[in-house]
Amino acid sequence: MTFKAPDSLAEQIAHHLAERIIRGDLKPGERIQEQKVTLALNVSRGSVREALLILERRHLIAILPRRGAHVTELTAHKAQSLCTLMGELYILLGNAVALGWQTQVDMAPFLQIQQRLVGSFERQDIRAFVEESFNVMRAAYPFANNPYLQETVENLQPAMNRAYYLALDQRKASMSEYLALFEQLLAAVLARDLVQIRQVLSAYGQRSSSLVIAALADA
């Protein structure tokens, strides 16, 4: 495999490994060996080390002295903690969009994402559905104009995607629930209803948590 710009080589390697962790190709507790990754991807060992540090920052792996890098365990407590925190961060982004949009043009990216989410649901394409769900947050970043909030969401989102993918992989019908919640969220944002935004996103966080915990119990 060959990686190219515009992303840095380490970021591309991190993204490649993150996708494997999110899909479950790399299992919890599994060791990620620098040399094997270096040979498999035909990249430098230094770039792999940098990629592993990125993944550690994103809570997908743990790097332990004399034990190397291992895929982190996803427990019920971690899932609940993550979903609770992400729900609050999403509320900040949702409020920023509600208070910041001026014309229908501002909301066009969100409506386009909604259409792509529907298409992913109809195809039962979990990977695309998860990616488009995160694109909602990225579309909200300019409204928040908060680099610290953006960095925090970016670092936590891969772990959230991992949990999200696990839940949807075992319960594909749940995609319809998320679509309904997103429709409610869009309506609340358009109405600038901050109370409803909190209610919808709190429900999203609670539902995500319960689905992930149930999926972990079934795994």
UniProtKB/TrEMBL annotation:
InterPro entries, per the entry: GntR_C, TF_FadR/GntR_C, Tscrpt_reg_HTH_GntR, WH-like_DNA-bd_sf, WH_DNA-bd_sf
CDD domains (alphabetical): WHTH_GntR
Domain HTH gntR-type: residue ranges: 7-74
Record's keyword annotation contains Chloroplast: no
Keyword Signal included in the entry's annotation: no
This protein's UniProt keywords: DNA-binding, Transcription, Transcription regulation
Recorded GO MF terms: DNA binding; DNA-binding transcription factor activity
Protein name: DNA-binding transcriptional regulator, GntR family
Source organism (scientific name): Pseudomonas antarctica
